Amino acid sequence: MAKKVAIIVTNEFEDVELTSPKEAIEEAGHETVVIGDEANSEVVGKHGEKVSVDVSIADAKPEDYDGLLIPGGFSPDHLRGDSEGRYGTFAKYFTKNDVPTFAICHGPQILIDTDDLSGRTVTAVLNVRKDLANAGAQVVDESVVVDNNIVTSRTPDDLDDFNKAIVDQLNS
């Protein structure tokens, strides 16, 4: 059965950390929906990749989705700066309700705002691991970590493992 995966993103995302998992999800027969600040706008990655926003965060309902993808780059830090905390609240629905949640590189920063990392095992790019540990997570240095519904990965070098874990979660 096809599933619908939300992708939360804004400018300065790490291009391949959005495009590669998105492609893997779609090739596996699932749908992706890009969620950002404003519907029908465009966000631009660090290396120039342009992506159209399908749904605004103000209109997005997490219960409409079967999974959440959070690409890295500077996007997660920008999303955390949302004065209303909408992205963290959106992500919390997934972590709290055991809905598949996929975050790579700096993406796990958003998971800090869910307050649901205590006792969870995750990985991320080196410079956010301390923040994740301070949020109560057990942080390991592995290409991909699957802790129930939360799948995390470190860098673009790990995309093959990350994409496989995403598809496995969606197909299970």
How many E-type strands?
Answer: 11
Structural shape: globular
What oligomeric assembly is this protein in? single chain
Computed structural class: alpha/beta
How much is the radius of gyration in Å? 14 Å
Distance between the termini: 10 Å
Overall mean pLDDT: 97
Please work out how many helical segments DSSP would assign: 6
Can you walk me through this structure?
- With 172 residues, this protein is an alpha/beta fold.
- It is built from six helices and eleven strands.
- The longest helix is centred in the first third of the chain and has 13 residues.
- The mean pLDDT is 97.
Give a brief rundown of this model.
By secondary structure, the protein is of the alpha/beta class. The protein is built from six helices and eleven strands.
